[in-house]
């Protein structure tokens, strides 16, 4: 598949999120619990997300830190495990993946190769934005926007 990439500069964006440490095996369960917690808190504030749900990968390794949440139109207060946070500003590579989440490993390999070919270096943070819902979307039609921050 021919994939397109763009390097863009984005400002910081407010968000509400849950921070967790997870293994890759436990991630679906953790994400499955975090999204309803964040969306429930947004509802309790009478607010709606300003964009699609996301998972931010903040560290690497067998157990890695993730930020699971929704962007918001303005800074909002957290409650309990849901905290006020931000999607960081900076230059990033943006690409889209259409297909099952299980193919994301291949997408990242292609993305990192492209980044190196451009003379750029990854900055250590990556965000996945989920543009449709896996509960109602067939796996071949799932849309994931990937934003890899650059060093």
Question: What do you see in this structure?
Answer:
The longest helix is centred in the N-terminal third of the chain and has 18 residues, at 27-44. The protein has an eight-stranded antiparallel β-sheet with strand order 1-6-8-7-3-4-2-5, covered by helices on one side. It is of the alpha+beta class and 151 residues long. The protein is built from two helices and eight strands. The protein has a single domain (6-150), classed as Multidrug-efflux Transporter 1 Regulator Bmrr, Chain A (Alpha-Beta Barrel). The protein is globular and about 45 Å long. The model has no long low-confidence stretch (mean pLDDT 95).
- Give me the CATH architecture, please: Alpha-Beta Barrel
Shape: globular
Q: Could you say which structural class the secondary elements and strand pairing correspond to?
A: alpha+beta
Strand segment count = 8
Order of helices and strands: EEHEEEEHEE
Low-confidence stretches: none
Provide the residue-averaged pLDDT: 95
The residue fraction in helices comes out at: 10-25%
Strand order of the largest sheet: 1-6-8-7-3-4-2-5
Oligomer class = single chain
Strand content: 35-45%
Largest sheet features:
8 strands, antiparallel
| Count of distinct structural domains | 1
CATH top level assignment: Alpha Beta
Radius of gyration: 15 Å
The CATH topology is: Multidrug-efflux Transporter 1 Regulator Bmrr, Chain A
Keywords:
40% strand; 151 residues; 21% helix; Multidrug-efflux Transporter 1 Regulator Bmrr, Chain A; alpha+beta; globular
